[in-house]
Structures are given as structure tokens and as C-alpha cells.
Amino acid sequence: xxxxxxxVSSLFWLSETRKTAQLLIDGNDVNTIRVLxxxxxxxxxxxxxxxxxxxxxxxxxxxSLPVDCLELIVxxxxxxxxxxxxxxxxxxxxxxxxxxxxxxxxxILLGEKIITDRAINVFFDEKKQQNETVAAWxxxxxxxxxxxxxKNLLExxxxxxxxxxxxxxxxxxxxxxxxxxxxxxxxxxxxxxxxEA
Length: 197
Hints:
Layout: H1 14-25, H2 30-39, H3 48-63, H4 68-75, H5 78-92, H6 94-109, E1 114-115, H7 117-130, H8 132-135, H9 139-156, E2 159-162, E3 165-168, H10 175-183, H11 187-194
Antiparallel strand pairs: 1-3, 2-3
Helix pairs in contact: 1-3, 1-4, 2-3, 4-5, 5-6, 5-9, 6-11
């Protein structure tokens, strides 16, 4: 999977993801959901282009997960749903997964309690040196990506803003979700958000 800056316009989309998962469970196919997004404005957005983009991103995320996760997204407690969405974002965005693994998880392993601006900047600086695609991004694009990565962590509940610092909140992972993810080879994604080996 190539590095992408697509996340600058892709948000966490909790309620929209739950709605889409329910539509899939109800037997709607991908094309039907795209049509509903555009014609019935199921995501409550300003224009059809935005609605179609949201549908495409959310469906891609949902398809990256084990099928059993769809039911959990609709029925599980909100904390569990947020973790599933975070994992789906990591699964569909290589750079974001590497950010979680190399910045968030590393901070946990080192016993640090916060995500620093320095750690975020070092991560992106190293990626620019290692990859032509990332190196070609403008400063504005990189800044927006940094902001969106932090927003995703905040919305997932794995960090919180406290005294102008981003405090790490190691999530408690529901046993059923853990087993489901491990059984489907998602252990690296699980470990990235829990700091486990």
C-alpha cells in the first residue's frame, strides 16, 4: 500500500460508519449505499461529491475488517466501536498505521505519558527523507495530516488533551473484539494501540 495524504479530507466518521455498517448488515450492496449517500444525503453533508467520497472511504474501511466487526460496530459499546474504527483507518492508511506504531506505541513502550510535537515532527521528517511521495507533499498538507492524525486519536479516545498536552490513554480492549482481531491476523494493529509486544 502506497503512502497517501487522503486523510486530510477523511475524518473519523463515527455515526456515519455505524449507519453504513447497518446498511451493509441489512443487505444493501456498495452501489446502493453510494446512491443513498448522494440522493438521500444519509450522511447529512453539503454536496453529492462529498457524500460519495465519504461513502467510498467508509466502505473501504469496513471492507478492510473481518465481517464480524460489522455487527460489533452497530451493537457494541461506543468505546469498542471507536477502537474498531481506529483499526479500520490504520488498516487502510499505511502512513497512519506507521504513525501509531512508531509514535503512539513507542511512547507507551518507553513509559512516556504524552505524544509530543517533537515526536510527531520527527516521524514526518524521517518519512520525508525515506519516501519521495511524502517528500513531495507541501508543508500545508503535512500540517493538515498531523492535525488529522491527532484528531483521530482524540476521537478514538486513546489520547486526551490535558494541560495543553496530549495524554495517552491506553485502551481496554473488549475480550470478544480482541479474540476476533487476533483470529483474523490483526494482532499488529491491536498491539499498536495497546503497546503490547
